[in-house]
Amino acid sequence: MCLARFSHIGGAHVQHQKLTAESSIVKMDIPGKVVIPMIQHVGVPCGPLVKKGDEVKVGQVIGDTGNYVSAPVHSSVSGVVTRVGPAMHPGGGREESVEIETDGLQAIHEDVAPPEFEGKDGLFRIVRASGLVGLGGAGFPTHVKLNAPKDKNIDALIINGAECEPYITSDYRSMIENPSNIIEGINIVKTVLGIKHAYIGIEDNKPGAVKAMSSAAEKEDGVNVVVLSSIYPQGAEKTLIYSCTGRRVPPGKLPMDVGALVLNVNTVAMIATYAKTGMPLVNKVVTISGGAVMNPMNVEVPIGTLLKDVFEFCGGFKCSAQKVLMGGPMTGIAQHSLDVPIIKNTNAVLAFDGKEAVVHKETACIRCGRCARSCPMHLMPMHIDLAALKADAERLEAFRVIACFECGVCAYVCPARRRIVQAARLGKSILRETWAKEKGQAQAKEKGPAQAKEKGPAQAKEKGSAQGKEKGQAQAKEKGSAQGKEKGQAQAKEKGPAQVQAQVQVQVQAKGLEQESQVEGLQDRKGGGKNGQ
Ligand code: SF4
Ligand code: SF4
Questions:
Q1: Most exposed: 97, 196, 203, 455, by fewest CB within 10 Å?
Q2: How far is the CA of 153 from the centre of ligand 2 (A)?
Q3: Model confidence, pTM
């Protein structure tokens, strides 16, 4: 059944620029080498399980960690490991990666086989084993998302097919070309987790996807296609939940708090693929587009393929690329090199020509209020902008900068071209730093009296015994002298150096304790400061 539902407040009508909407997904040739980072998800990075010289096959686990909030990394090619170490990462910086020289054979690893699973725990286990993370761009490990706490009653599965960001069409093509796989994935999640209703949210500017998904879902019980108004950021999690169900996720809360679970269309499709074949997440459908690209298209790429190889597959550049983005133009990350790899959550790579990459001059805010009217989180972006520039943590907290999910709408509509998203990012880091500082100070304050209380009796005990020892020695000395001069002198002669030594030791010990306690006091203060930094 096809439903038309609620429309969210705010957002902006952006230019769609879906240049690749009619481009069927093409499988890329296997490149000469791939560089597979050990961190491709939100959570704890994996550690490499292979070393230089090892032979690997497609689907083999090459990185993992014992941590729950993480997802294993698999080889997307067969070949030989040529290097394990830091390499350029699309998120910026260098991350531990495995470089593999491919042999072109694409031999599949022996462990790749359809998994057996039963119940919720079985589903969480196989989803983790598949290395699946949110494929819409978030990159959060899917098994963690599926495993909601027992007290949360999830009754709505929302499938994100909105793909509201300009240029990107990888989800759209998947819905057109393989809708049955998406439905299979929905049915697995729905049945195993006991979720009654599933809503597939698709914007009304994608009639082809609406048609394909509606006909695939026709005979399914409790699976509905929801046609959404095409406005950016319709695909943002909280916006989509409201648009599909009318439920509002309160600030600071999660979708599970309103009984919703949101998964991207390609994420559910991957659950179905893994359940059928056992082939983990090794390839990714990516939109390669932008004015500088010779042949914009949707390409299925082995994870770890370098951008330069993907662009070459698309015919290279027709003019000088002024800006290369990993992701869409609203939320993507600018790249400074083409030697970075495609990772699990890459959904687009855009190369802009001179016209698309224009950076406008920033001018003063004219208080027009457009940014506030457009913000889907009902924030006051102009105040966040100012507070961030002044590093005013109090105002940043008051204007709820933490609720900003960096959609970029405010900056898009701003006539003064204010860099509001950058300001919001800066504001969040200022606020987090302030909170950490306050927490550190509070902990140091709490720790202080408790430590003193603990240390007090121990120090008193030691001091007491040292004093007793000293007193005893002094008494012995006095007693010694009172017992006959000769004996005393003889004893004094014999015992003298030993007693002096003991006394010195006692004094040193006592002083040591004192110094130790001072050092600890300093460490406490230093520790408090450090935490607070
Ligand atoms: S303030 Fe944040 S959430 Fe609001 S429009 Fe700007 S970027 Fe989007
Ligand atoms: S849209 Fe720009 S100019 Fe208008 S109030 Fe917001 S920051 Fe100021």
A1: 196
A2: 40
A3: 0.81
